[in-house]
Amino acid sequence: MHKEFLMGNAAIARGAIAAGLNLVCGYPGTPSTEVLETAAKANDGSLYVEWSVNEKAALELGAGAAYCGARSMVTMKQVGLNVASDPLMSLAYIGVKGGMVILVADDPGPISSQTEQDTRTFAAYSKLPCFDPTSVQEAYDMISEAFAYSERYHTPVLFRPTTRICHGYASVTVKDTEEYLHNQPEGFVRDPSKWVIFPRLSYQAHISIEARNAALSQVFSEYPHNELRPASETGCRKGIATQGISYTYAMEALEGKPAPAVLKIATPFPFPEQLAVEFLQNLDEVLCIEELDPVIERELIYVCGKYHLNVTVRGKLTHDVRNAGENTCASAAHDIAEFMGWALPESAKADAAPALPVRPPVLCAGCPHRASFYAVKQAMKGKKSVFCGDIGCYTLGNAMPLDMVDTCLCMGAGVNITQGIGKIEPDTNCFAFVGDSTFFASAITGAVNAVYNQANMTLVILDNSTTAMTGHQPHPGTGRTMMGEIVEKVSIEAVLRGVGVKTVETVNPLDLQAAIDCVKRVSAESGVKAIIFKSPCAVLIKPEKPAVIDPEKCTQCGRCIKSLGCPGIVRKDGKAAIEQALCTGCGLCAQVCPFHAISAGGEG
Fold first, then answer.
1. 227-229 and 261-264 as β-strands: parallel, antiparallel, unpaired?
2. What is the DSSP string of 312-324?
3. pLDDT at 337
4. Between vectors from CA 61 to CA 76 and to CA 473, what angle results, nearest 5°?
5. In sequence order, what are the beta bridge partners of 533?
6. Which of 31, 26, 19 is nearest to 168 (CA)?
């Protein structure tokens, strides 16, 4: 054993490899992405690593590997679990042979997500065991235990780190290479009575699942990461029940004080009922501090009723703890002080600090999506139009001055929402914007639906040759895999034509007039048509020389700033100026300037 300074996601990946991981796959999504990327970097050739086209594909791939006796891990964020939920619910009934861990990183806040959904609640819904680490070290240790429990009970298990665990750093005690477990899969053994799901099989499996979870509740009451700390003073009849990073916050708030009893829950489902009974028996009041749903709170209320314990359980349901957003050191200290009747500590007043300057997210300087949105906006000026967006960097097209995203629901939804609007408002020019990675992940079926049901819409593919929002991962259109292989690129144009889209045009959005003309021409056609705006992400290319503004020609009209909102163009001393450190020399502003006062890439 030795120590290393690791990010939580890196620790999880390293722990999984040490546990004999054979296959890891997933779909990138903050805050989970670095788990798979770390596994790829640490791969000695014995591990199969894959970015799958979406979470559903990844989960099914991981299940197939686990059917063979392999140890597989599937990574995603909490909204990705929605995409994977169809196979997951059935897999809970079928079970696995090898250990299978489904890592779902939750995002309280949310910091970079559409929702604040809690995977612990999904665990109870799917009847799958769930592991909830409280620190980076515990995440490293617990991932190997998750594989062991999965194999022992022949079930996939959920592993639920949150953002502050995923992206936190700590000195972690890790195994030396010679201590790693090497799992040798047996291979797939044909057994239709086990691997083929039928109603009768599901009925029997449901009975077994309920019995297994009841047994696991007893087992988890002895699980070492579920901890019960007695009150530090005799006679204290108050307790704190907590989990995850909130446990760390709570222990920090209690440091140096006469602490109440503390219950740490590392396995929220099946809930360690007997441990909870032991915790509650000598208490009058309990405060639950957790993210995000009142999972522990509801379980403790149930236990109190079942065992006739006269304990008042407080938390989100009683509004003693806020019921949305992530917890902080300050919020935990505040809630505990209020509960214990202590004077409010200075640390708990941090939330009242002066507000930081607002820094809204913007499209990068030189981002081709800015040009794509601007071209469509100019082409459709004065026409009744709706612009349905999607999940990706290009969601930022909703910000002023572009103002080009009217709807955004979830990955791939924009293509179908556009069709719904068009059916009700046939006089509207309906556009759906989707990125290249998202197209492969979840928009292809929407395109098929549009062709089959004779929609009248323009599908706009924003192809920047990467999965930019989550860190530039490869996808089927890039011609690279996470195993380092160079493969045939999957052509978006060929896919569209293959499903029946007759008109598909590709244009560089940074050639502004050509892009505008293309939008006018294609959008005027009836039926389903597509425009592929193809230009690489600004982060992937070597920038040109920064643009130059000619002070003799510049009238200070501000059109370059007001029309584009590019962070590479600023006002200095009341005049338009190029921010040299940001400008990529893309030339879009030069094409927008009506007085030809801007030269792209330092030319002119």
1. antiparallel
2. EEESTTTTSS-SS
3. 93
4. 45
5. 462, 507
6. 31
CA distance 73 to 80: 14
Q: Which amino acid is at 401?
A: P
- Give dist(CA 481, CA 469) in Å, integer: 18
- SS3 label, residue 8: helix
For residue 427, what are its two tokens? Answer: 């006089």
**Helix ranges, 161-307 (H):** 163-166, 192-195, 199-220, 244-254, 273-280, 295-306
297-334 b/e with 16+ CB inside 10 Å = b?
bbbbbebbeeeebebebbbbeeebbeeeebbbbbbbbb
From 328, 368, 320, 375, select the one nearest 347 (Cα to Cα): 328
Give the neighbor-by-neighbor strand order of the sheet with 528-534. 385-388, 429-435, 457-463, 528-534, 503-507
Whether the CB-CB separation of 134 and 248 falls below 8 Å is answered with yes
Q: Give average pLDDT by consecutive 10-residue segment, the chain, 604 residues.
A: 96 97 95 95 94 94 96 96 95 96 94 90 97 97 98 97 96 94 93 88 93 97 96 89 96 91 97 97 96 96 97 96 93 94 72 71 91 96 94 88 92 92 94 93 94 96 86 84 88 96 96 96 96 92 90 90 92 88 92 92 56
How far is Cα 585 from Cα 562, in angstroms, rounded to an integer? 18
Helix or strand (DSSP H, E) at 5:
strand 2-7
- For residue 366 the two structure tokens come to 């030189």
The whole-number pLDDT of residue 353 equals 62
Tokens of 320: 């003693």
Distances (CA, A) of 229 to 39, 225, 280, 285: 35, 12, 12, 15
Instruction: For residue 174, list its beta bridge partners.
Output: 2
From residue 571, how far is each of 357, 539, 558, 593 by CA, in Å?
Answer: 18, 24, 9, 15
Q: 10 Å Cβ neighbour count for 494?
A: 11
**CB-based contact 579:567 (threshold 8 Å):** yes
Of the candidates 334, 315, 393, which has an alpha carbon nearest to the alpha carbon of residue 361? 393
| Non-local CB neighbours of 520 within 8 Å, separated by 6+ positions | 379
All domains of the chain in start order, with CATH: 2-220 (3.40.50.970), 227-349 (3.40.50.920), 368-534 (3.40.50.970), 548-602 (3.30.70.20)
**pLDDT score, position 343:** 85
| Cβ-Cβ contacts under 8 Å for 571 (sequence gap 6 or more) | 558, 561, 577
Q: What is the largest CA-CA distance in the chain?
A: 85
* Alpha-carbon Rg for the chain in angstroms: 27
Angle at 220 between CA 217 and CA 226, to 5 degrees: 130
Instruction: Compute the residue count for the chain.
Output: 604
